[in-house]
Amino acid sequence: MRIFIALLALSHVSCVSSAIAQSVGKGNAKAPFAREAERHKANESVVVLMGGSLGGSYLQLAHDIAVVVNDGDNMRVLPVASDGAFANVRDIVLLKGVDLAISTVQTLNALKASGEYGNIEQQIAYIAPLSVDTFHLLVRPEIHSIQDLQGKRVNFNGKGSGTARFGPMVLKALGVTGVIEAAMPQGDALQAMRSGELHATACSCPLPVPPFAAVQPGSGFEFLEVPYIPALEQDYVPASLTNVHYPGLIDKDKKVHTIATSTILITFNWGRETERYRKVEKFVNAFFLNFDKLKQPARHPAWRSVNLAATIRGWQRFPAAQQWLDRQAAEAKSAPPVVDPTVATGQPARTGPANPGGQERMFQEFLEWSRSRPKR
Q1: Which pLDDT score, from 0 to 100, does residue 368 have?
Q2: 148-163 pLDDT per residue, tens
Q3: Class in CATH terms, 132-263
């Protein structure tokens, strides 16, 4: 009898426990994974940005953009390593899933002139100018002048880069022919120079180039000056390298004169009614609104000299980008002044929004004004 009662009690406890477990399980049960809904959510605000070679300045700029723009599923930029300025334009025109790329004005002009991709000026639109691409020519100790590179082995960055296309042309314009061309990332090129496999490496890149900036004093390497001759005036402007950029390669208070061209952020010229236009437009809004964060110390130094409102002659700005700049210029113009009025009365008259300098100044005023407004 006692055994029967014990078994009955155990059975009752077991049933109660099972009921409790089922009740708890039902209360904590998660909704089934809705794959298609989550897939749409994860993809609708993602844009792919083609940067440059690993360890290079373009890829760092792309990474910086992703850091300041990314906002979970609301906005996400995927920076991708690439072969450089020319390859990036090709990817924008031909590659599925590529939304943005970093290239140069010189590259776009060369492709327009060659007709390689047809009427590329109708297919490509720019969002904003970025940094300046400065031409670096770093050489081994036995090279003392550009003429010494005659017949020597010179690296011109990776295949598909602007340096690979235009670097040999720069040397040819300066009277240097017969160089043996190599194509490798700058970190690899430095190692090849140390071993004597290369005599020099060239890079048309934003300042500073990370591998060059890491070179320590006593390496024996140095930058050669690149003269600004009439043959280079169409595509370049004068520039210089300093100790601030490369403390291990350039003495204090010394400048190395060279040439430079402009870097640019581009996209495909999508129709306004398309989903791809909407995605790029969403990126533009986030990029411009967060641009001041790119000038912080943790980001690439090149951002501090960027003029987003500058225009590129012969090329169209992406409509959403132009509309954003126009709206903020108008809002900044009508906003309360952010400076002491007694000081402002002594300042020159404002430049109109059609002037790139005025647009940039108004854009910066808008950012300052928007930061001072209460958060909603």
Answers
A1: 52
A2: 999 999 999 988 899 9
A3: alpha beta
Average pLDDT over residues 38-67: 90
What is the crossing angle of helices 319-334 and 275-289, to 10°?
A: 40
Task: DSSP letter for 363, please.
Answer: H
Per-residue H/E/C for 153-165: EEECCCCCCHHHH
Whether 38-131+264-317 shares its CATH topology with 132-263 is answered yes
pLDDT band at 18 (very low <50, low <70, confident <90, very high): low
Average pLDDT of the residues in 271-295: 96
Within 8 A by CB and 6+ apart from 231, the residues are: 173
Q: Does residue 208 have a cis peptide bond before it, meaning omega lies within 30 degrees of 0?
A: yes
Q: Determine the Cα–Cα distance for residues 4 and 40; give it in Å rounded to an integer.
A: 60
Say if CB 190 and CB 213 are below 8 A apart: no
3-state secondary structure of 302: helix
Residue of 334, 332, 339 whose CA lies nearest to 363: 332
Q: Which residues lie across from 76 on neighbouring strands?
A: 46
- Is 3.40.190.10 the CATH number for 38-131+264-317? yes
Identity at 30, one-letter amino acid code? K
CA proximity to 211, closest of 82, 37, 203 = 203
Q: Tokens representing 15?
A: 């049933």
Do the bridges between strand 222-223 and strand 153-155 make them parallel or antiparallel, or are there none, so unpaired? unpaired
Cα 252 off chain centre by: 29
DSSP string, 61-115: HHHHHHHHH-BTBS-EEEEE--S-HHHHHHHHHH-TT--EEEEEHHHHHHHHHHT
Plot region of 314 (φ>0 → left; ψ -120 to 50 → alpha; else → beta) = left
* Placement of tokens 């903020």 in the chain: 328
pLDDT-based confidence at residue 242 (cuts at 50, 70, 90): very high
- Say if strands 153-155 and 180-182 run parallel, antiparallel, or are unpaired: parallel
Q: What are the sequence ranges of the domains in the chain?
A: 38-131+264-317, 132-263
Q: Is the pLDDT of residue 371 over 80?
A: no
State CA 147 to chain mean position distance.
Answer: 34
Q: Is the pTM of this model over 0.85?
A: no
Q: Give the span between the Cα atoms of 148 and 252, in whole angstroms.
A: 26
- pLDDT grade, residue 36 (50/70/90)? confident
Q: Which two tokens stand for residue 125?
A: 């639109």
